[in-house]
Amino acid sequence: MRIPDRQVGYNALISRYGLFCVADRTSSFIAKRLSVIDRTEHADGSVIVRYPGKYNFDDTLSAHLEFCLKYEGVNLSALAALFEQRGADELQAWLDSKPGSRYARVCGYLYEWLNGQTLRYKLPAGIDAVSVLDDKRYFTAPAQRNRRFAILDNLPGTAAFCPLVRRTPALRAWIEKDLGANVAQVLASLEPELLERAVNYLYLAETRSSFAIEKDIPDSQRAERFRRLLERAGEDVPLDEETFVEWQYVIVPRLRVEASFRQKQNWLSRSGRSAHGADYIPPDPADVPGMMAGVVKVGELVKSNTYPVVLAAACASFGFVFVHPFLDGNGRLHRFLLHHFLRLGGFTPPGAVVPVSAAMEQDIASYAAVLKRYSARRTGMLDYRLDSDANFIDVKKRPLHLYAFFDATDLCEFTFACLERAIDHDLANELAYLRAYDSAHRSLTRWLDAPQPELEKLIRYIAQNNGCLSKNKRGQFPLIDDGDIARAEAQVNVAFAAYWKRQQ
Question: By CB distance 3.0 to 4.6 Å, which of 228, 280, 497, 501 could disulfide with 268?
Fold first, then answer.
């Protein structure tokens, strides 16, 4: 008869105690017939790990928690949900029996950090300090020492908002590429006139794409206001409610401007959905101020010189859209916030912007997927009711820890992928286009006697139509004969040959 595997770790605790939290990405089992650890990773990011019988342990809460911290890492949401149910008694008994245990001390510290309650504890003499997060497994913030438990708190956020990022091979590789240095080097190599035109394109592309993602077509005034806001990204201003309200005022139509963070519950539904379905229900309005303070703390890690700038910027900007502090404009503000922290941390040179929204728009399916991985898992757990006109939503249980803590690794990998595309593809293509255009312009101005606007339009039309002027556009140039059109086409082809090759 086959002996069933014993489930252990966070998912075992979630199942046993009915914890109100998202399942851990790792499901662990003790398989007595195995002699080595067997690990299987699935396409959705979930992991199944089976451990040999020698890893088995007594079926106590403290033993499960020690296994979790030792082999699965730190899951703040599961711990917060557990500590709400299982309280101080078992942790107190663990600390009393093993006051020097690093795992008991970490759990005791996290209990107090998450709950704001105090345990009885006296640190034995001669105990070395230990970190909450293993810096070989996670990217960690500068540590703050807690002398009471001899704990080094290297968590990146607060008890109201604290995303964690794992040290994956993909993230290590992107960090080593130093994409920010690549941007600075490319822009520094440009002559002033070309740099000005390139920067103008970057701002234009970012403005258009950020609105296009929301399926919004702004009028010229709103587009110009957003561009001016992008130019201000990186200003070292207090990131308080007043500043966020000011930024929202720039982005949304005047009639939808809000004077503060939202005071009522909002929700998101795709167009055409039934009024009885919500795609995402953000946190309780009462939790917004505390969560936003945590978002700001994580974002300002870009100034720490220890936490990677892109990771802090990604966690804070995506955290903003998950908190959804306004009724309107959250998506555009989330993408602006990414630019703000990238420039504040020195990734983006002053006066420039990386068209990351353009890269997101070009891979909108992946962008939607990383947002949905957070939103769907949480909204799917909620018991809620929408009224028949979809004017009001009633949500039953919605604890802060469900929203405050999450694994942000995939969000950071997506952000890096978008930045790399924006730098290596979009920026490089625009510079190649500008150089090709300038080459064609120099060639044609030597012999073609035409007004500058007409000359520039002729080059654009030929380039846009793969090297020849279309019959529909030919009538716009009545004063240029067919022989000169053919000569112009030939020279534009030469000038744009390298650019077109890049597009293949």
Answer: 280
